[in-house]
């Protein structure tokens, strides 16, 4: 049941871009204000670490960065069919984990908790940093350290964290209910969410503040629209009409699950064709656009058009919420601090001390340590040595590519905490039905772009801290979440450097959602940094120029975290068959295969940190059962 509720109906507030994601941060801010936020600790900062040895400070194309994935595509295209030769390292492990994201790191942690801290574990990841989607971006502007999240933003879900996930957070010294202590909501006091109307789709370029804060009539009166479109948009946002009058509340819910938000707006609410651009570029849950988002999901996300309708609603409550300045990279860092000695300062780091803790990447892969993390190492083959049920210590051979060479390690067990999509290509001996199931999902492509700017005076002048750009290259831009924690202080006044966090969800309207994800993935993979940079500069100049912003003067650094394989694919009521949980592709796909188990958020068909943790726990349990380990 939980599976279905998570996979089909859960809406993450972060996923809804149509002016509602702003509500998430605003709500946090209000909660924090109510809790009486404390005074900021003193400024922290210091000299910039060397990007050659400290990946979080690297800029340009990050996320799935150049050099991290090309060999995976070779594997996908059959480049490693048949036996794969590799140089034996002679290394033998109790457990080899493929993927150093939160799921892989959690799997290593659970395994050690169950079987002893001395068990030999190797974690292999294709990136130059650990954490997977949970990626730290670190900037240094003069004496200031400015942190941001390159991927996984917050601890949050629309469904409860499990006993296991809550337990892990507690072990790591993370207490979500204390978040308000660190939030600094007053930083953006008086500033509002806004919409950027672009001249290609509306009458002129203009940022209009106060979307869904000011009365619709006042907001749209300021927007560059024709009188007809203005009247239409005001009507959709305000009129209390039941557009499905023949259905009772439960029937309405059923009907809305089977139609797109676009169909609801145009066919039932009578939206004009020339009003549609206001909704077209906006992203809804998991990159669902107005054409692929079920209307019911839009309703649950408080999108306009439903205010006159009584619709049966499944109860959903956000269970946990905590944001670190570097997002859930802090969770990855806390896990590494427990797994590998010497990377972080000694002692038990917690939610405060992890934030500014320096990390020594040279200590990640040291032979003397029981747990090792080997970066820039992409696994291209995982295969049993002998039969899958043979009870030997050298049960599985893992081949990885690093620096142009291939190497072999052996393990008693392997946990694949990587993407579902790649597993069929690196474990060719899997049953065909399982391979087909693993290939079903199409992860959501995203750019999480962080732009460090000299100051945010232009935002202050325009009266905004957040901007949805329905038809922009990046459809979302916001000043970073203000907070003070563990000696870190984000920009407190408009004259200080701050990160603008921008989001792009490329897609191809008209196609089924999974195909839109595939097209978006190609877009992300094929677009060079220079093009993205040009788009960023152009977009910010056009939107913020009237406030005095000048990209050539004000941009200090750009980090584009590209995630062609972003959010785990979640099912929806429009594009996926309604199947019992046991028949869902992610359940068929994650079955253990001899000594090989499968973790990662994909295995839970839900793009959340707690799911990545829960799936790691299940995989460790399967590993233990597979060998009757004590
Ligand atoms: C932009 C973005 C924002 C998000 N925001 C949130 C949020 O706010 N809250 C939330 O709860 N969740 C969020 N998520 C979901 C996020 O995916 C999960 O929370 C979680 O971080 C997933 O962890 P994981 O270990 O399952 O997968 P990943 O983080 O994807 O880690 C898997 C790792 O395995 C590596 N890998 C793949 N193939 C191989 C191979 N063959 N060899 C070696 N390594 C390999 C991958 O490159 C990756 O580093 C977000 C995701 C994205 C993309």
Summarize the structure in words.
The structure is a single chain. With 630 residues, the chain is of the alpha/beta class. Helices cover 29% and strands 20% of the residues. The chain has 20 helices and 23 strands. The strands form 6 sheets. The protein has an 8-stranded mixed beta sheet with strand order 1-22-16-21-18-17-7-8. Strands 2, 3, 12, 13, 14, 15 and 23 form a 7-stranded mixed beta sheet that branches. A two-stranded antiparallel ribbon has the order 4-5. Strand 17 and strand 18 form a beta hairpin. Helix 4 runs parallel beside helix 12. The chain is globular. 53% of the residues are buried. The N terminus is likely disordered. Bound molecules: flavin-adenine dinucleotide (FAD).
How much β-strand is present in the residues? 15-25%
Hetero compounds: flavin-adenine dinucleotide
Q: Please, how many helices?
A: 20
Oligomerization state: single chain
Q: How many β strands by DSSP?
A: 23
| Proportion in helices | 25-40%
The biggest beta sheet, please? 8 strands, mixed
Q: Spatial order of the strands in the main sheet?
A: 1-22-16-21-18-17-7-8
- Determine the N-to-C terminus distance: 32 Å
Q: For the residues shown, what is the average pLDDT?
A: 90
- Low-confidence sequence ranges: 1-45
Radius of gyration: 24 Å
Shape field: globular
- Helix-and-strand structural type: alpha/beta
